[in-house]
Every structure is written in structure tokens, then in C-alpha cells.
């Protein structure tokens, strides 16, 4: 059966591709109405609209706005047009529109009743496309002016020009429309309706008509005609006129403004949006449901205003009825309008499917990685029959093809991607194969011819050039052109169906009985030819259509050279950066670093440990020889990657990256920039595909590990590399298991060092590991090589041990505890109890300064000798018998001695105590012993060699120790006592016994360096000091008595005239305070010399005070009154000469024992005074 004969309706009949709201020819309308398909989605929208619309007949409403949204081709324009016909119930070809829809709602009579009821009254619709009817000049009131224009047109006025429309409206209100038109036609010769669009050319005729019909003067008529003012129109005015119009109609009259493409017209223009909002709001509030506004837009209303939500939330309220259309039911429309089959055809197709079910499933089944799940073939025989000769996935793909072509081609923007465009597309495709039989199906490339007229010239030129090359047999075959068309159609559908070879074969299928293998070969040949001539490009296993510019750039990229080293480096980054990004391989609790290599090139830093080596196709085949691989894999894992396109993919990506860097993209035309940007996206895709290809290559790779060709179990790439490294670890690190007990932190190391881990010597789990290190240290010792702890860490973290840093430290701690090794830091032996030891064994900053050596044991004889000496020397019984314990004991005790002797030495500071050289020598001797504490043997030897010196030192210091325990205070008191009498020595010398005792004290406290000190005399000091103190105290008491007598005598002289008047009283009180202070000083002063010096200032104070009192007692002289005119001459005043003599000089200290002594002393004074008086007026004794 021919395909043409299968359809109920003639497949070759004319069907409009895209519905336009202004197409109203009867033949077009009849077809549109009869063939309009009410899908499930549309039925919901009919119900929603007529429910809201019908309610307005019962209750008044302001919610008269309806917004129909949907992307290009969703059928919104068609739905708007059909809705207008239904509402108006327009009679077309003798049949009312509502009646035509009765059969379409046979399965839903309730909805039809709703529609029928809503259309009983008189309804007028004003249906128009605002993009067409609107003015080119879109000012702020553009929407209002379009509404006004269409309303006036509807009324029969000339809405194109509001000036003319307003004139006609005025004439109509005067009831003179027919008269005006008749008079104008008489004067002009042409009807008014046909000439009003050019009224500006008929001034005289119009002026004359206005004069005759309206009675205007010629001047008034011409002023109106020539007036340049524009007719202003407000929303309120227009709505008022609309309201006046509908109010004159019956109550059930309805007027609907049905406007197509409003969303596109207002776009994101704020003024237009507000204009529409205000207009709809005013119509709703004023007309109360009698006038409706129905708009369509490519976007939903909330999408249009979403960036200005706060400003325009009110407009959403104006359009409460919102209907959103999609193209989801496009296949349903196509199936019913075009593909509906006759009964015979349906029966035959069912037979074909039942016979070839499995063949069809195999033929049309996409690989799971190449297409989405909804890209499917036929499910059932009914599915086959209703879609034949098309495949279900073609409906999905064509919708997306239309959408993508519109996005990516300027001419393509005129496409409508919904059911009507798809309708014509599927009709034309069916027509191309209408003469084929029931085994034929439509290959996808047929759809190219349904869209090619809308495509950019750049696209068509590529296809046309390829067609010409095929026609002229210039390396291209006719099938290649079809493949190229197909590749263009799916150019932007990579997310839905990938343009792989298998996918292309399926999409090229044109017959149920097609040999898929043969077709695959043919398609591959076509792809190869197209690739060779740059009609297409390839990314991994996918193929891409190229425009002329893309071909030129593709050719330049292809000629760009890339170094093999760069490709290898990139493979390394993908393997070790994306697929297997571990820097260390974790095995149990161990983290093993490994070196990363690709084709002999290191990826990242090299540690010298185990290797993971990737061999790509860049490695020579000779290196992949089985024997060589086994040999080279010793100590490493070699992964020989399986076949794959990864190398080519990476090369292509790098070529693109390199090419882009050589171009100044910013200076290139935008079209070239877009291509380069797409190429960069392609490069990213190449890299992603390369990553997938490398993963697969690893999954199918051959593995050679530590000299063996091993079989790795199933798993992904990461799992297989994990298994290879695990195998390598267990073979390379064969000493790993010697560490049977692991450490967690420093506390575990301290526990081992101090023996708190409770293991008996020789039974520790890590004994074998400790033996390994001990053997190595013995070898180092034999070679006289210094070994650092850093060497131990490095050696045993590496192959073949692989121990953790903390576990190595723990094993060394075990050797330390068992006294098998010696640790030195900065030349000093470190004891197990040293708190710094864990850091020395572990810390990076310390291990390089820490030496570890095989321990040399001190001989037992010396140990015994040392212990015996220490028991006696230190007077202790408990001296450790083991070497470490003994060494620690010696160091601890001698450090105590050093501190003790240092303390003694410090007591000499500021003092002259006996035997300081002995103490100083003791410190030196002890330090000399401790200087060998870094070496156990040397320390023991030093102690043994110093025995006699230590004994002598101990004996010599007994007197010193005793001195500081019991005698130092007596010694200090005596020294301080002598110092306190330093100013009174002359007085002490007057007492022979006291002077002798003081000299003895001086002798005992005087220490002479190098001369033995007699400690036995120190007890004498107290008695000698007592003798001196008694004598000195007696002298002090006598001196104090004499001074107090002077105080009494001075005060007596002062008080004699102290109360003569107020002034003398004040002088006396001041003197009293002075002498009170002197009495206090006399009582406490212990220096005879200082007491002696106190008499002079007291006598001086007495003299000052008595003289002041005498002066105060003298009467004040009154100056004589000089007679008037007396001479001013003053007699010269003679200045008195008073000699001042110190009392000490006049009355020297002397002991008088007889009256004769007194007479002589006084006579001497008399003679001196007389001498001083000669040549002076007086003597003042101070």
C-alpha cells in the first residue's frame, strides 16, 4: 500500500503553515475551524476561560484581563483566533462557529454547554496583531493609541488618524454621516471611505462639504483642516467612549479586544507596561465585565515583569485569567490533522508492526549514552500506526530543531516552532515519500527541506556547495549531502541526542528492512568524506556541522602543531589530577607517596619511592614488549593503556587552545569571535571526552607490577589503579609487617622509653623491627659513619620498610630503653628520661641534629668500682647497677653538687669569707666530671680518675660547710661592728682594754688568700665585741650627759627674757623646737664623733635666739620731725667693726685637773680676747 493512500485526509491538501490573526478568507477559516484539534491541554484552557468569562454574566467584575502565554509555535495565536470566532459565533460558510465545535466536545458535553451558554448573547471581538497595527513610533502612550485606533476602526471611523476619526465621530453624533459622505462624493467624485486615507490632498472638497453639511464658515473649516495641533487621547477619555458604546447595547452584549503579540510589543518597556496596566484597570473598573481584554505573549506575564516585581505587581492582578500553552501536544495535532489513517491502512500497519516488532526495536534503539530516555522508537502497533511514516522521537527532536534554529540563525527567527510549523514540516516530509510502501519510514534529514528557506545564507551555502560537489562527483556522494543535512538539524541537540555514528545511522533509517551494518559502513564513509573536505568536524566520537567560517577556522586549527610532550603532560594532568588525584596511596593505616610518570615523563615532584607509570599510545611499541615490561616494572606499577581516542582528543583540544592564543580575538568580527568561543567550548568537550576515554583505557589496560603481569579484577579506573598500587605496596614494602604494634602519639613513645609499656625484655612485638635498625647501626659503626635520626627516618620510611615516622621513633625508643643505642644531641648523650627525646626522634627540625649510634657498653669492673666509690662519697646505699641508671644517677647527683657548690660560691659575693679558692676549686672539679656526661664510658672513667680529688675536696670543704651553717652570722656581726666604729677609733684608743679587744676582732675577721684560716678563733669574737661595746657605751653616755647639760644651759639663757612680749615668745618657741630635736638625736646617736659635733650648732642657736630677743626688747625709735625748709644734709655714720670668732677656737677642748690649770686656761682666753678687741669695736663669739 502506498503511503499516500493511507491517510483519511489528502496528504497533498493545502494547509497554512502558520496561523495569522488577520487571515479571514472563508476557505481558510473553514479549514482552520474544521481541522482545529482540541487537545487535552486546550480543553483545560477552554474550561478555565469560559468559567471566568461566564461568571461575568452573573456578577459584575473588574477582572476582565486574560493573558495567553506560550513560546513560538505553541499555538497561542491560533487559540486566540479560534476563541474570537467562538465568542462571536461567527457564521462561516453557512455554519455557526459554535456549532462546528459541538462534535469536538462530544466526549465533554458539560464544557460545550459552558461555551454555548456564554455565546448566546451578542458579542463583538476586535481581533488584531498589535505588532502590525501599532505605530512605528512607540512613545509612552503607544498601547493606548493602538487601542483607540482599533476601537475607532471597529466603529467604522478612520482610526489610523485620530483627527479624522474625531471628525467622523462628531458628524455621527450630529446624525449627518450619510449626508456628509453623499455631499463629499458629489464634490470629489470618489467615495469618502476610499479617499479618507488621503484626505490631506482634498482640502477644498472637505472644506466645502463641512460648510454645507455642518454650516461651518469657510474660515473655520480651513482652520480646522490646517490645524497642526495633535489630537490628545487619555485613557479615561477612551474608556469613557467605550463605556458609552457598550452601555447602549443590551445587557448581555460583550466586546472583546483580542490582541496578538502583546508581550513582544511591550517587551521590557516600562512605559508600555504601565500604559497597558492602567488601560486594562480602567476598562475593568468602568465597564464591569462588559468589555474584556485578551492578550498573547511569548512569555508568561510574571516573566515579563519579574525584574520589576515591586513596581508592577498590580498588572498581574489585572490579568487574573492566565493560560499557558506549550507544544507538548503538537504530536497529537499532527497525528489527527495529517497522519490519521483509514481503517485498511491501520490494519495493514498493525500487521507490519506485529511481524517486524523486534526488527523495529533493534533498528531504532539508541545507545544509552547517546540519547535521552524519551528519544524512543515505537512501543505498540497503535503507536506505529498513528505515527507512521514518522517515528515518535522525531516529534520531540523537530520541536527542538525549530527552537534551536530560531536561536542560532537570524533568518531562523521567523520560524514558528510549535504545532503549525511542525504541521507543515511533517506534511512536506510525508509528501516526499508518499509513493513508498508500508515498510518505508521518513529519515530525519527530510525535515531539512522544510526549514531551509528560513536559514541563514551561510548555512544554505554549505549544503548547496556540498550538493554541487555531489552532482559533479567531486569527492562527495549524494548520500553525503543527506548526512550533512542531518548533522545540521541535530547541530544544537547534543543534550538530547549525540551525533555519534550509531545515532546518525538510526536517524538515517528509511526502511524497516534496512541493513543496519551496511548502512553503518555507508554512513562512516560519508562522514570520512565530509571530514576530509572540512564540511564537518569531529569531537571524540561525535560529528559536527561546520559553516564556511567554521570550516576555515577548523582548517587553521587542524594545521596548528602541538608537541608530543604537551600531550603527554596533559594526559598526566587528567590521570593524576582528575581520575586519580591521590598524592599518597593509603594501605591500612599507612600513606605511601608514589612518583607519577606518563611515558617516561614525571608528573610533579619525584620522591624516589615507588612509581605509578602510565604508558599511552605515545610510548614506542618496543617498550611494550612483554619481557621488557616485566623487567621495567620492578619496583613500580606500569599501566599500558587500552585503545581509545584520548590521544587524538587531547591533541585536538591543545590545538584549539594554542590557536586561540595566537589570535587577537577581541579585534575579530563578532561572528568569528562566536566561532572561536564555540571552538573553546569544543576544546573543553574534547578534554571531557578525553577524560572519559582515558578512564575506559585504564579499565581495559594491561598491568605490570613489580616484575609481574597481573590480572586486575573488575572496577572503574580509580579502583583498578588502587588495586595495582596495593599489589605494589605488598611486594615492594616487604618489611612493612615487622612493625606489629603502632604508636598513636608521643605518650606511647614516652611509655616505651620509661618501660611503662610492661613488656619483658626480648618480647616486644616490634622486636624484629628493632633488630633491623640495630643491625644497620652496627654496620654504620663498623664503617665509622655518623648516623643521624633523620637518616633512620628516611631509610625506614622508604622501601622496603615503609614504616610511619611515629612508628620508627617508637622502635628507636625501644632500642634506647633496652640500652642498645646511644642518642646524642649537640654532642651530648641524651638520657631516656629527657623530655625532649620524642622531639629528637620525630620532629623535622630536630632529627637532623640528633645522632644515633650502636651503644658501647661500660665494663662491669668499672661499673662496680664506680658504684662503690659513690656509696662512700655520697654516703648512700642505693646506687643503680645498670649502665643507664648509673649514668643518670651520676649526672643527677653531680648536678646537685654543682648547684650546691655554686650556691656556696654565691655566698662569697660582697664578702671576704675564708677559703673561697677551695669552694671555687670544688665547682671546677664537679664540672670537670659533668663535662663527660655526653659519653657514658668517658663519664665513668672521669669519676674513677677523680676519686682522690673528690675525697680531698670533700674534706677541705667541711670547715667551709660548717662555717656557713653555724659561724657566718657571728663573723658578719663582728665585721659590721668594726665598720660601725670606724669614726670613733680615736676615742676607743683612750681605753687600752677596748683598743686591744678591737684589734683582736680585726685580726680574726681578716682573711688572707693563700693562708690557712683559723676557724677555731671565731667563737672569741662575741666576748671581744662585748668588751669594746661596754667601753664605747660608757663614752657615749658621758658624751650624751655633757650635751644635755649644754641644752639645759642654752634654754635657760633663752628663757630668761622669753616672755617680754609676743615677739620674744615666738623666738623662744622656735628655739624650743630646735633643742627638742637635738635631744632626740642625742638619745639615739651611737657615734662619739658625731655627738661631739652637735655642741657647736646648739651654742650657735642659743646666741642667735638671745640676740633676737634682745633686739625685740629694744624700744622702737620715733623719727624726728624735720623743720620746714631745714637742710637735707645727714651727718656721716661711722660703721662699727665687729670681729667674729668661733667658740671652738676661743675655747679649745682640754682636760683641767687643778685650779692652776683653770687659771692658766682662763688667762689664755683673756689674752686672746684683748688681742681680738684691738683695732675693732667689738667681738662676736660664734
UniProtKB/TrEMBL annotation:
UniProt xrefs under SUPFAM superfamilies: P-loop containing nucleoside triphosphate hydrolases (SSF52540)
Q: Which ranges carry the Probable ATP-binding protein BrxC winged helix-turn-helix domain?
A: 738-855
**Top-rank lineage group of the source organism:** Bacteria
Show where the Probable ATP-binding protein BrxC alpha-helical domain sits.
Answer: 863-981
Domain Probable ATP-binding protein BrxC 4th six-stranded beta-sheet as annotated: residue spans = 560-728
Q: Which InterPro entries does this one have?
A: BREX_BrxC (IPR047679), BREX_BrxC_4th (IPR058036), BREX_BrxC_helical (IPR058037), BREX_BrxC_wHTH (IPR058038), P-loop_NTPase (IPR027417)
The protein here is known as BREX system P-loop protein BrxC
Q: Which organism is it from?
A: Kandleria vitulina
The record lists the lineage as: Bacteria, Bacillati, Bacillota, Erysipelotrichia, Erysipelotrichales
Amino acid at each position: 500500500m502506498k503511503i499516500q493512500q493511507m491517510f483519511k485526509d489528502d496528504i497533498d491538501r493545502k494547509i497554512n503553515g502558520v496561523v495569522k490573526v488577520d487571515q479571514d478568507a472563508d476557505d481558510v477559516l473553514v479549514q482552520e475551524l474544521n481541522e482545529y484539534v482540541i487537545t487535552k491541554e486546550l480543553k483545560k484552557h477552554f474550561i478555565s476561560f469560559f468559567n471566568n468569562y461566564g461568571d461575568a454574566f452573573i456578577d459584575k467584575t473588574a477582572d476582565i484581563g486574560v493573558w495567553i502565554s506560550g513560546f513560538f509555535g505553541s499555538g497561542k495565536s491560533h487559540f486566540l483566533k479560534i476563541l474570537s470566532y467562538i465568542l462571536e459565533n461567527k457564521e462561516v460558510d453557512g455554519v455557526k462557529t459554535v456549532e462546528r465545535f459541538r462534535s469536538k466536545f462530544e466526549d465533554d458535553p458539560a464544557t460545550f454547554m459552558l461555551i454555548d451558554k456564554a455565546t448566546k448573547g451578542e458579542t463583538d471581538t476586535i481581533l488584531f496583531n498589535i505588532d502590525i497595527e501599532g505605530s512605528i513610533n512607540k512613545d509612552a502612550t503607544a498601547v493606548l493609541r493602538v487601542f483607540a485606533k482599533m476601537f475607532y476602526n471597529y466603529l467604522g471611523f478612520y482610526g489610523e488618524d485620530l483627527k479624522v476619526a474625531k471628525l467622523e465621530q462628531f458628524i455621527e453624533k450630529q446624525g449627518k454621516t450619510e449626508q456628509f459622505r453623499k455631499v463629499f462624493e458629489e464634490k470629489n467624485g470618489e467615495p469618502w471611505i476610499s479617499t479618507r486615507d488621503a484626505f490631506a490632498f482634498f482640502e477644498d472638497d472637505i472644506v466645502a462639504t463641512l460648510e454645507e453639511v455642518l454650516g461651518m464658515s469657510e474660515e473655520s473649516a480651513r482652520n480646522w483642516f490646517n490645524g497642526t495641533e495633535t489630537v490628545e487621547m487619555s485613557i479615561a477619555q477612551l474608556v469613557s467612549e467605550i463605556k458609552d458604546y457598550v452601555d447602549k447595547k443590551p445587557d448581555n452584549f460583550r466586546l472583546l479586544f483580542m490582541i496578538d503579540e502583546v508581550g513582544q510589543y511591550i517587551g521590557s518597556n516600562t512605559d508600555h507596561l504601565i500604559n497597558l496596566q492602567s488601560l486594562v484597570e480602567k476598562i475593568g473598573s468602568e465597564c464591569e465585565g462588559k468589555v474584556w481584554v485578551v492578550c498573547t505573549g511569548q512569555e508568561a506575564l510574571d516573566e515579563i515583569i519579574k525584574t520589576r516585581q515591586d513596581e508592577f505587581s498590580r498588572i498581574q492582578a489585572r490579568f487574573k485569567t492566565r493560560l499557558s500553552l506549550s507544544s507538548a501536544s503538537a504530536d497529537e495535532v499532527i497525528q489527527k490533522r495529517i497522519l490519521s489513517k483509514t481503517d485498511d491502512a491501520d490494519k495493514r500497519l498493525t500487521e507490519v508492526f506485529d511481524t517486524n516488532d523486534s526488527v523495529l526495536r533493534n533498528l531504532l534503539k539508541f545507545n544509552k549514552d547517546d540519547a535521552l530516555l524519551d528519544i524512543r522508537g515505537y512501543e505498540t502497533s497503535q503507536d506505529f500506526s498513528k505515527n507512521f511514516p514518522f517515528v515518535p522521537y522525531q516529534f520531540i527532536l523537530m520541536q527542538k530543531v525549530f527552537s534551536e534554529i530560531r536561536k542560532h540563525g537570524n533568518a531562523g527567527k521567523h520560524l514558528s516552532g510549535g504545532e503549525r510549523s511542525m504541521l507543515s514540516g511533517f506534511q512536506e516530509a510525508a509528501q516526499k515519500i508518499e509513493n513508498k510502501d508500508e515498510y518505508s519510514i521518513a529519515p530525519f534529514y527530510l525535515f531539512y527541506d522544510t526549514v531551509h528557506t528560513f536559514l541563514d545564507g551561510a548555512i544554505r551555502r554549505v549544503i548547496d556547495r556540498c550538493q554541487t560537489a555531489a552532482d559533479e562527483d567531486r569527492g562527495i556522494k549524494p548520500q553525503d549531502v543527506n548526512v550533512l543535512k542531518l548533522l545540521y538539524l541535530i547541530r544544537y541537540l547534543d543534550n538530547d541526542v549525540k551525533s555519534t555514528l550509531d545515532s546518525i545511522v538510526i536517524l538515517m533509517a528509511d526502511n524497516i528492512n534496512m541493513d543496519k551494518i551496511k548502512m553503518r559502513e555507508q554512513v562512516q564513509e560519508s562522514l570520512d568524506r565530509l571530514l576530509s573536505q572540512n564540511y564537518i568536524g569531529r569531537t571524540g566520537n561525535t560529528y559536527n556541522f561546520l559553516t564556511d567560517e567554521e570550516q576555515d577556522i577548523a582548517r587553521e586549527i587542524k594545521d596548528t602543531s602541538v608537541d608530543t610532550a604537551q600531550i603527554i603532560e596533559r594526559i598526566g594532568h587528567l590521570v593524576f589530577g582528575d581520575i586519580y588525584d591521590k598524592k599518597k596511596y593509603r594501605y591500612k593505616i599507612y600513606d605511601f607517596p608514589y612518583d607519577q610518570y606518563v611515558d617516561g615523563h614525571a608528573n610533579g615532584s619525584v620522591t624516589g619511592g615507588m612509581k605509578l607509570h602510565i604508558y599511552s599510545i605515545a610510548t614506542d611499541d618496543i617498550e611494550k614488549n612483554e619481557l621488557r615490561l616485566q623487567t621495567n616494572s620492578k619496583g613500580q606499577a606500569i599501566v599500558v593503556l587500552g585503545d581509545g581516542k584520548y590521544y587524538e582528543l587531547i591533541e585536538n583540544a591543545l590545538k584549539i587552545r594554542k590557536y586561540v592564543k595566537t589570535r587577537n580575538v577581541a579585534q575579530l568580527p563578532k561572528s568569528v569571535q562566536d566561532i572561536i568561543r564555540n571552538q573553546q567550548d569544543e576544546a573543553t568537550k574534547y578534554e571531557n571526552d578525553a577524560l572519559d576515554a582515558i578512564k575506559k583505557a585504564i579499565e581495559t589496560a594491561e598491568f605490570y607490577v613489580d616484575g609481574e603481569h597481573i590480572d586486575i579484577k573488575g572496577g572503574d579506573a580509580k579502583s583498578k589503579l588502587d588495586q595495582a598500587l596495593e599489589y605494589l605496596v605488598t611486594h615492594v614494602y616487604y618489611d612493612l609487617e615487622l612493625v606489629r604494634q603502632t604508636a598513636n602519639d608521643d605518650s606511647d613513645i614516652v611509655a616505651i622509653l620509661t618501660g611503662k609499656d610492661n613488656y619483658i625484655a626480648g618480647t616486644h612485638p616490634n622486636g624484629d623491627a628493632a633488630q633491623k635498625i640495630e643491625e644497620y647501626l652496627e654496620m654504620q659503626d663498623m664503617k665509622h659513619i655518623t648516623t643521624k635520626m633523620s637518616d633512620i627516618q628516611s631509610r625506614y620510611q622508604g622501601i622496603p620498610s615503609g614504616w610511619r615516622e611515629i612508628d620508627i621513633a617508637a622502635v628507636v625508643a625501644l632500642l634506647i630503653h633496652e640500652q642498645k643505642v646511644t642518642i646524642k644531641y649537640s654532642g651530648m648523650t641524651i638520657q631516656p628520661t629527657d623530655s625532649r627525646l620524642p622531639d629528637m626522634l620525630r620532629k623535622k627540625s630536630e632529627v637532623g641534629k640528633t645522632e644515633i649510634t650502636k651503644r658501647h657498653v661500660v665494663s662491669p669492673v668499672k661499673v662496680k668500682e664506680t658504684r662503690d666509690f659513690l656509696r662512700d662519697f655520697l654516703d648512700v646505699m642505693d646506687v643503680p647497677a645498670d649502665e643507664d641508671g648509673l649514668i643518670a644517677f651520676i649526672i643527677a647527683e653531680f648536678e646537685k653538687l654543682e648547684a650546691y657548690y655554686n650556691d656556696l660560691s654565691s655566698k662569697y659575693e660582697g664578702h671576704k669569707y675564708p677559703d673561697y679558692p677551695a669552694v671555687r676549686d670544688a665547682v671546677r672539679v664537679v664540672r670537670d666530671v659533668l663535662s663527660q656526661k655526653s659519653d657514658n664510658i668517658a663519664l665513668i672513667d672521669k669519676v674513677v680518675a677523680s676519686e682522690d680529688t673528690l675525697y680531698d675536696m670533700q674534706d677541705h670543704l667541711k670547715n667551709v660547710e660548717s662555717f656557713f651553717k653555724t659561724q657566718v652570722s657571728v663573723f658578719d656581726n663582728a665585721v659590721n661592728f668594726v665598720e660601725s666604729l670606724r669614726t670613733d677609733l680615736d676615742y676607743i684608743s683612750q681605753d687600752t682594754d677596748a683598743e686591744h679587744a678591737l684589734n683582736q676582732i680585726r685580726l680574726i675577721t681578716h682573711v688572707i688568700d693563700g693562708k690557712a684560716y683559723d676557724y677555731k678563733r671565731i667563737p672569741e669574737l662575741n666576748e671581744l665585741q662585748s668588751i669594746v661595746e661596754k667601753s664605747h657605751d660608757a663614752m657615749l653616755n658621758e658624751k650624751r650627759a655633757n650635751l644635755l647639760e649644754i641644752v639645759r644651759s642654752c634654754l635657760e639663757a633663752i628663757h630668761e627674757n622669753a616672755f617680754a612680749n609676743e615677739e620674744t615668745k615666738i623666738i623662744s618657741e622656735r628655739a624650743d623646737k630646735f633643742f627638742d630635736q637635738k635631744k632626740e638625736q642625742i638619745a639615739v646617736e651611737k657615734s662619739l664623733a658625731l655627738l661631739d659635733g652637735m655642741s657647736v650648732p646648739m651654742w650657735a642657736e642659743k646666741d642667735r635666739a638671745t640676740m633676737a630677743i634682745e633686739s625685740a626688747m629694744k624700744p622702737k625709735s620715733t623719727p624726728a620731725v624735720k623743720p620746714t625748709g631745714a637742710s637735707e644734709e645727714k651727718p656721716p655714720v661711722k660703721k662699727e667693726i665687729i670681729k667674729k670668732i668661733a667658740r671652738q677656737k676661743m675655747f679649745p677642748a682640754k682636760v683641767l685637773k687643778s685650779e692652776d690649770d683653770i687659771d692658766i686656761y682662763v688667762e689664755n682666753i683673756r689674752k686672746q680676747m684683748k688681742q681680738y678687741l684691738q683695732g675693732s669695736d667689738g667681738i662676736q663669739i660664734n
